Every structure is written in C-alpha cells, then in structure tokens.
Amino acid sequence: MKISGMNFSAMKIGTKLGLGFGFILLLVVILSTFVVAKLSGMNKDAARIDADLANKARVSTISSLAKDNAISSMEMLLSSDSGLHARIIAQTDERKKSITENMESMSHDLAGFAQDEKLLAEVKKNRAVYVSGLEKVISLVKAGKREDATYVAGEEMIPMLAPLLKAVKNLDDHQAAKLDASTMQIKQTASSIRSMSIMIAVIVVLLGVTIAIMIVRNLMKQLGGEPDYAAEAVGKIASGDLSATLAIKAGDTSSLMYSLLVMQESLRAIVAEIKNIVEAAAVRGDFSKRMDMGGKQGYTKELSELLNQLSNTTNDGLNDVLHVANLLSKGDLTQTIAKDYPGAFGEVKNGINGTVTNLKELVGQIKD
To answer: What is the widest separation between alpha-carbon atoms in the chain?
Structure first.
C-alpha cells in the first residue's frame, strides 16, 4: 500500500503509528478549530442578544415613563393642590431625566444600525414635541393658570402622546424582531456546531479504526502470525529446538514466520548433513562423506567448508598412515609420508616416518 508516494508496508512500526495518530490528531485539531470558531460566533450572537434585551428593556421603560408622565399631568390638571402639583412636577422631571438617559444609551448601542437609528430618531422627534407641550403645561400650572394649562394640554400635549407611543411601539417591535432573529441565529449556530461535531467525531472514529486496522493487518502480515507465537518460535529455534512445526498462511512468502520457517529448514538440512558426516566418521570410520556446497551462503558455507576440510585432512592423513603401515607390515621400508599435516596429524606423520627411519637403520646394522 502506498500513501502519497510512500510505501506504507515498508515503513517502520514507529513511523506507521506516528502517521496514524498524527492524522487523528490533525482531525481533532480541525474539529477544535471549527468549534472554537463557531463558539466565537455564538459569543457575538450572545452579545447581540444581551444588547437587544437591554435595548428592549429601555424601550419598555421609556414607554412606561411616558405613560406615567401623561397620567401625572392629567392628575395635576384636575387638582388645585399646589403641594400635589410640586410633587408631580418633581416626579415628571425625574422621569424625563430617566427617559433621556435611556435614549442616550440606546443611541450609543444602536449606532451604525440604520433601521434602529431611524426608529429612534422618530421617537426623539415625537418626544421633543410632546415634551415641549408638557413643559408649557407645567409652566402654566406653576403660574396658577390651570385653565390655560388645560387648554394647552388638550391642544399641544395630549395629541402628541399617541404619535410618541406609536413611535416607541415601532421601536419596541423592531427590537423584539431583532431579538428573535438573534435567538434563532444562536440556535442555528448551536445546531451547526452539534451536527458538525458529531460528523467530524464519527469521521475521526471511523478513520481511527480504519488506520488501526490497517496498521494491525500490516503488522500481522509482516509477522505472519500472532506476536506471541512468533516470539515462541524464535525462542525455540534460538534454544536449538528445530522440531516445532511452524504454521504459515497460504501464499505467505515474505513474513517473519516464513523467514523463520526457511531458517528452520535450512538449519535442519545443515544439521542433518553434519550429523551424517559425524556418524559416518565416528561410527563407521568413513571419512569420505562431504557437505554439499550447493546454495550455501554465509556461516553455513563457511561451516561446510571447514567440515569438508576436516574430512579431507582426516581422510588423507589416515590413508597416508594406512598406506605406509601396510607397506611396513610387508617389510617395505621404501615409503614415508611426504605430505605436511598440522597438529596431531603432523605428530602421527613424524612418528610413522621416524619408525621407518629407525627400522632402516636397524636393518642396515644387521646386514653389516
């Protein structure tokens, strides 16, 4: 199997595992990056929702305060109690101040949003007209001119309340629609994260399982069997036990187990040859057997050559000794061993030749 020009089968185990886990890690990083990016988008959506909620609350406050001021102004016109007038005027000023603050906050938050700015501008315009009428009413009430104040309220203030409240409602409806849209967006983002995360997680698991199966199958193919079985076979061969029958899968010509089988058969063959030579020499005194040099390499060739050399030396030495000894037994003192032999064979040669020399001298003395 090749991956981008690389032979996967020829890779080292560490490289295979590194590539497998590295690929899975890459997918995990991609998943994490995707989730972080989507979460960042969700944070922005959540921030928009917070802003929309805050602005909707401000719009509700503005509407409520404006209605309270309208009710309070009617109470003020219906009463002649100056103390009540003072309290209502003070409350009205506080409400106006609060409305102004809320509108300023909204102006800051809605800057850059054309539709929001347009609706807020409409609220400000209608409020300005309404407040102008309200301030005239308050001024007349302070001056004790309740009838004039009632007239101004009917002509300038009360008619502007409905447009103001309508503008406020339009802004409130728009903020509600934005809030719904932001909520829907964050739900869609969450659903997208969930779906994509599940999909990538499934891909990671499937690829992880596939890579693991590929690595295991490749290793099993290289081993040719279970690691424990291969280790046991190696242990037996190392201890000199060549009797085990190694199970090899059909068609296997490249695995470790196949190599072990070839090595076992080779060892069996050379051991059988050595045994045959040794038994022939030791049991039958036959030194004519030789190791077959066909197809042997390395240490088997070297060992076979040495055994053949031993057989040749032993056989030649014994033949020379037997030849001279047979002649001696017949009284022929003309032959000696001429060939050089090392070690013990050399000592035997010297002993035989010395015997021949001594016998020659003895015969010569007898003749004289």
So the answer is: 190
